[in-house]
Every structure is written in C-alpha cells, then in structure tokens.
C-alpha cells in the first residue's frame, strides 16, 4: 500500500506539473529538431536549489547529421569560461579554430559545464551521453571536490559515501522526493529564520568546512570521492568506446597567498611556505621556490585549489583506460610561465585562467584531438595558435566584463580585496555595456547587438565583423548572421572568409540574395567552377526576372578554358582569353591575374598589353 500511494502521488504531481524533469537534454522550443541542455538539470545536485547554477544552452541536432563531429564538454567553472563565459570559454576558442581550419565540416561542440559542481555532476551527466553519439568527450574537473555541490566540505554535503550520494541523486529524479526536499528546506528556513543570502558570493555560500588540514580524513575523502566518480565515469564511456580527453588541473602558485594558514608548527603553515617561496624566488632559486609555492598551496586549509593528489589520480586513471587521453594543460601553462611557476601570466586568481590561459587550454585539447586523430589536417593549412589569439572574436565588452566580474569576486570572501576607485571620466560604450552585463541589466545577446550597431554607425566594418563572428559562435545556426559576416568580409576584402560564411548561410537557408553574393565573390576570386552552381540557382530563383543566361554561358566558357589552361599554363592565348572574359564583366582583379601570367611568358604580347591598358582605365573610373 505505501508503494501504491507513492506511485499515485508521483503520478498526480507529474500530472499537475509539480517539480521538474531533470533529464540532461530536452527539446529546444526555439529550434525544432534540436536538443538543448535542460535548465533544471543542475537542481538534482544542489541541496539548496537557490544555489543551483545554469550552464550554456547550445542546441544540437536530435538526429546527428552524417559527417558531423560532435563533442561534449564536461566540468566546472573553468570549463564554462568563468568570468568571461560565452566566447571566453576554451571550447569556443576550440570551436573557432576548428571551423576556420575545416570550413567545410560540421562541428557540434556542446558545453555542459556548470559552476560550483564536481565529479558527481560529471559522472551523472556522462551516464546520459552515449545515446547522443559523441565523437569525443572533453573534461576539465577536480577543483570543486571539497566545496562544489555535494563536496565533502560543502554546505550541500549529504554523505561521505559516493554510493549513498548516488542513491539519493536517483531518488531526486522523482517528483515525490522533490516535494519532500522542498518541504524540508522550507521548514529549515522557518525554524532557523534564515534563507541563503544571495548577496554573498557562491564561494562563501557553498563552503562549510573552511579548515581542511592536509592529509586529514576529510582531505582524503575528497580525493577518494573524486577517484571513485572519475573511475566510474571513464568506465561508463569506455564501455561505449567513446574517446575521452581529460585535462590535468592548473592553479595559481606564485601570485596568490594562502587563504587560511595553520598557526603553530611552521612545517604545517601554508603562509610560512609561501614566504619561503617568495624569498627563494627573489634570490633566483627557482626550483626551490616552485617546491615551496606548491607546498603552500597543499597546506592551504581553505581548499578552493585542488591538491596535487587530484592530478595524480587523473594521471593514474588515464593510464588505466585505453580510450582516455591525458591532456597535459599544466605543461602548456608552465611553458608560458616564468621559470615554470604558474601565476598571473595565465591565471586571474586561484584557479580561473585569463583569456591567454583559456586560449592555452584550448590549444592543449586541440593538439590532443589531432594526436588521437579525432581531427586530421592531412597537410591542409591550419589556423595556428598565434593566428587564433589574433583573430578570435573576443570583444572589448567580453574582456571588460571578465575584469569587472573579477573585481567583484575579489572584493568578497575569501579574497577581501578593496575595489579600485572608479575613474572620473565618461565611460566608453564598451564599458557601459560590460557594466550592464555584470549587474544583469542587459543580456549578452543585446549587448553584442548594441555593440555591432555602434561600430556600424562609426563605419568600422572590422569591429562590426568581430562582433558578428562573436554572435556566430553563440548562435551557429543563424543564417542571417552568416550572411552579415560574409558581406562584411567582402567589404574588408577578406574574400576567402566571405565565401566560407556565405556558403554556410546558403547551406542553412537557400536564397537568391545569398547565391548572388556567392557567385559574385567566387568570380572575383577566379573560382568559376565553384560559382556556377550558385549562379544556376540564382538564375532559376530570380525574383527580379533579370536574365542571367549570358552570364551563365560566360562562366561555363571560363570553366572550360581554365580546364584547358591547367594542362598548358604557358599558353598565352588561353590566359588572354581568360583575362578578356573577366574584363568583359569588369572583374579587374581576375583579369590582371591572367594578363600578368601572359606577360611573364611574353613581355611584349600586344593583346596582353592592350588588355592591361583597359584594366587601368577601368580602375581609374
């Protein structure tokens, strides 16, 4: 009878819409045929739902298209890109690099990371992933085993046994348990007269045991919890032959003093080791300084930085499973840190990278994906790391938002650093928008649209394109954004980039305008064979009724002549024909290319010289 009652109550609660479906993915109401991360998926892992965090909502096709490379990303606040979020995240750096290196390929890189979670969430999400056909799973996690949701030292800890915690998590999927949990939480607030103070930062709200000594029982429980969850995580995905790439962890060694240091014995004092490290560093004894900095971090009683044992666990587990690859991010950071000691060059505070650090993190994963041949370049030109850093569309608003978020974080516990005084001057549009984002007066989407409009009004197409590319990383299924990016790239004479964006726009949504822009751009680049299908589409879907038959005949002729010329590149008659053909349609750039080819063979060729005069006249008009 009790079970029947519970079953009836469960059915009634579902019927009347009480509680939430806690599945990882749900149908995307904005994009039919797509799935998106469930905004309530995190609530299962937080005892106090007011602390539950939200992640990205990146749509992907319910039915995976042929040729698509689908990658899921799991982890915590570093993984989601805090404090920049959006395109600051390493997966967006990776996404941009992949789409620029492989413009013809379809990528779905779905970030499922959440702030303030740990290996329980990573393992829980992994159990649902296999059904969605991932080609790889990328993981960065391990800093939150003490104070993340269900961490052994957190306010949401419910047990020290992973098996018991997982049992409770399964129960929370039922609406009856959600009802019981809400009633208990309400009673606790009533009895105590207190609710979670949302004015306090999440770090303070989640940290219960703020002094966890090195190698203590609670310290070891955090490591054991991580090892158990991650071992089962790897096992679940390995059984499905899904490649997993897990990064080791980085944290600030040099430029962050210990949060809480034990008093008394200097050998157990984090602060004493930190001072020793600074002395050694100042004296040029960098090896000894590195050791002392790391030991200071190990002895810090407030465990917001993962102990070295977490990286040892990651290494050991990666070695155990053939489908798991260790991504040595720590080595990348050390290579870009003076004397191999991690600090402010790559990190903002205790664990979160700066933009350069996030770029490095993406590079570490990119190279590992190549090494395991998840992606294969086969000699094609790649977007180098240097080019990525230069071209990645991180706007000034994005970087300023990160800086402002960091000021607010460091003003609160446990940093307690005073906010720098506000400058007495008018704020730029970028500063205004970034400030609005930080206090949640404006959405990121609206901020980017306002920024793009500002740059367009200022006649700055380069900056307008940067913002449009930023929006494309957030909304990769928006044909209008691809069209806008393509047109801006044409304006900037970045024709290869323009073709890439216009092709993607046409692929998503065929239209005469996109086909017209494509064949014009491709003909300017002397790519008539690629232009022809778009010209044919435009001819058969021409709303203006303008006759394109002559142009089609011309392009077909160009294709034939180019095919002949490819077999005999010394034939000046063919190069002159190509130049004359392009000149007929006022394509001075392509005509110049073939005139120069003729003149390299015959400097006095009269036809080429005459064509060259016509080109100069056209340019002077």
UniProtKB/TrEMBL annotation:
Q: Which GO terms describe its molecular function?
A: phosphatidylcholine lysophospholipase activity
Q: Gene3D superfamilies, per this entry?
A: SGNH hydrolase, Tetratricopeptide repeat domain
Organism encoding this protein: Spirosoma terrae
Q: Which domain of life is it from?
A: Bacteria
Q: Which InterPro entries match?
A: Ester_Hydrolysis_Enzymes, SGNH_hydro_sf, TPR-like_helical_dom_sf, TPR_rpt
What is the name listed in the Swiss-Prot or TrEMBL entry for this protein? SGNH hydrolase-type esterase domain-containing protein
Instruction: Please name the PANTHER family in this protein's record.
Output: SGNH HYDROLASE-TYPE ESTERASE DOMAIN-CONTAINING PROTEIN, THIOESTERASE 1/PROTEASE 1/LYSOPHOSPHOLIPASE L1
Family matches, as CDD domains: SGNH_hydrolase
The root-end lineage is: Bacteria, Pseudomonadati, Bacteroidota, Cytophagia, Cytophagales
């Amino acid at each position: 009878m009790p079970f029947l009652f519970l079953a009836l109550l469960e059915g009634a609660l579902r019927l009347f819409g009480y509680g939430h479906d806690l599945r990882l993915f749900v149908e995307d109401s904005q994009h039919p045929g797509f799935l998106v991360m469930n905004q309530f998926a995190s609530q299962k892992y937080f005892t106090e739902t007011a602390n539950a965090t939200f992640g990205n909502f990146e749509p992907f096709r319910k039915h995976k298209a042929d040729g698509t490379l689908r990658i899921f990303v799991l982890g915590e606040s570093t993984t989601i890109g805090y404090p920049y979020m959006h395109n600051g995240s390493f997966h967006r750096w990776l996404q941009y690099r992949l789409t620029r290196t492989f413009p013809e390929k379809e990528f779905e890189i779905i970030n499922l990371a959440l702030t303030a979670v740990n290996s329980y969430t990573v393992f829980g999400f992994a159990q649902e992933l296999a059904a969605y056909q991932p080609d790889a799973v990328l993981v960065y996690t391990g800093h939150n085993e003490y104070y993340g949701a269900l961490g052994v030292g957190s306010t949401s800890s419910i047990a020290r046994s992973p098996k018991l915690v997982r049992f409770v998590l399964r129960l929370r999927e039922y609406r009856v348990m959600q009802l019981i949990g809400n009633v208990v939480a309400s009673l606790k607030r009533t009895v105590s007269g207190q609710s979670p103070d949302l004015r306090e930062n999440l770090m303070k709200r989640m940290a219960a045991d703020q002094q966890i000594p090195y190698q203590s029982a609670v310290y070891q429980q955090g490591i054991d919890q991580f090892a158990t969850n991650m071992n089962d995580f790897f096992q679940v995905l390995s059984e499905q032959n899904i490649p997993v790439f897990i990064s080791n962890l980085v944290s600030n060694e040099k430029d962050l003093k210990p949060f809480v240091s034990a008093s008394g014995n200097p050998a157990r004092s984090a602060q004493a080791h930190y001072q020793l490290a600074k002395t050694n560093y100042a004296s040029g004894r960098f090896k000894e300084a590195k050791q002392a900095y790391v030991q200071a971090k190990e002895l810090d009683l407030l465990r917001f930085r993962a102990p070295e044992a977490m990286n040892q666990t990651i290494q050991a587990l990666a070695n155990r499973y053939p489908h798991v690859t260790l991504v040595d991010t720590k080595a990348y950071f050390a290579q870009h840190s003076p004397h191999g000691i991690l600090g402010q060059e790559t990190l903002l505070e205790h664990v979160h990278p700066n933009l350069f650090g996030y770029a490095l993190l993406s590079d570490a994963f990119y190279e590992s994906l190549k090494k395991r041949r998840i992606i294969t370049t086969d000699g094609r030109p790649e977007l180098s790391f240097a080019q990525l850093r230069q071209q990645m569309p991180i706007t000034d608003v994005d970087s300023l938002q990160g800086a402002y978020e960091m000021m607010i974080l460091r003003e609160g516990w446990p940093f307690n650093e005073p906010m720098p005084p506000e400058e007495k001057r008018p704020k730029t549009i970028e500063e205004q928008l970034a400030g609005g984002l930080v206090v949640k007066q404006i959405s990121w989407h609206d901020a980017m649209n306002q920024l793009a409009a500002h740059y367009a009004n200022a006649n700055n197409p380069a900056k307008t394109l940067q913002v449009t590319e930023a929006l494309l990383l957030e909304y990769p299924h928006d044909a209008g954004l691809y069209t806008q990016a393509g047109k801006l790239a044409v304006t900037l004479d970045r024709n290869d980039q323009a073709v890439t964006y216009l092709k993607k726009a046409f692929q998503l949504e065929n239209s005469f305008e996109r086909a017209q822009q494509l064949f014009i751009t491709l003909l300017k680049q002397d790519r008539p064979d690629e232009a022809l299908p778009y010209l044919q589409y435009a001819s058969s879907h021409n709303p203006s009724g303008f006759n394109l038959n002559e142009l089609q005949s011309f392009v077909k002729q160009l294709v034939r002549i180019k095919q002949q010329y490819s077999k005999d590149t010394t034939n000046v008659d063919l190069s002159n024909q190509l130049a004359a053909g392009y000149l007929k349609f006022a394509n001075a750039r392509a005509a110049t290319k073939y005139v120069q080819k003729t003149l390299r063979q015959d400097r006095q060729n009269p036809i080429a010289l005459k064509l060259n005069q016509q080109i100069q006249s056209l340019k002077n008009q």
